[in-house]
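Reopening this ticket.

The earlier resolution said the output was attached, but the attachment link was broken on my side. Pasting everything inline this time so it's all in one place.
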Amino acid sequence: MSSASERIDKAQRWLDLIAYLVGRRTPALVEEIMENVPAYAGSLQLAEQENDPKRAKTMRDSVRRMFERDKDELRDAGIPIESRRQPIDFGATVADTYLLSKKDFHLPYLRIAADAAGVRPPRGARSFELQAEEAATAFRALEEVAETPGFPLREEARSTWRKLSFDLAPPPGGPVVLFVDRADSAEVEARTRTITDALLRRKVLSFGYHGMYRGAPTDRRVRPYGLFFQHGHWYLVGHDEVREDLRLFRVDRMDPPTVNARAPHTPDYDIPGDFSLADYRDRDAWNLGSDDDDVLHAAVRFDFPLSLWAERNRYGELDRSEENGATVRSFEVRQVDPFLRWILSRGGDARVIEPPELRERVRDLARETLAVYESEGGTDA
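Inline output:
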């Protein structure tokens, strides 16, 4: 295929095809689909630009085959794309058309039988009633697979578990807290608003910053480049004018920032064209400290088959592989506590090897966690 189609991966191509069909009220001809779905249309346009009729026909046949594969694979995945033979040209010929009905595409409205009284699905929506015992069984099953490291649909199961939890009655013994504001949420919100204003107007920010391991705050003058929310915290990425480099700041460690008041309607700077917020957004929780924080180098041993999961998800860098399938991987850690909690969540199949002080902190955290559960009667030991 051409470079135009290669730049759009299959998942995006499928989403574009679904969006086009759902947005239509009438069945679509294959030619209309090929001209309106970006991946198909881009390939056809490139072929036409070469001014070679034979090449254009070959490419059109290739794009048609791509559409047929996409259609069949989407149907196999449960997307109900309907085929219809429809007369065109005032009945002179009959052509294949395709339709994706909104009512067939949207999932049914789920109701739990125990709470169904007085609950009505949205107008026009299909509904599916689930018995309370069935819902509880599904809930427990989702919880189990969501915590299985090697399960390929782990994140999807976890997302479904969270959605289902809102519809299930709280267990005996007290209500479940689904959401609670952090203690400093009002202060963080105020700082985030100030940062957003400075970012939109391209104005320099000044603030005191409390580093992870530093005592007194340090004064900063920063050109905001981006703001994002990750792992329960807001982070600012910007150019530190004092250190003359990009820096990452956690908003709740800032003193209230102030915006440069000089020339309020004139930008103080431009964001470089090669800056990408995604480079920071995709970091793991333990790598989201300030760039000024000390970096701790850690080595972790992953037992088999968790070693396959760590490799597949690109956690750390591979140091060595062992004959039994285990691997040792190295990590750069800026926030120790999130890293240790992540290690403990692996249920003993991931163990810190180096440095010794970090290995001891894992043991301390495990003992503290066990003590909490024992004090609440959470263990039978």
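Reporter confirms the inline version is readable. The chain has four domains: 3-103, 109-115+127-165, 185-283, 296-375. The two ends are 62 Å apart (CA to CA).
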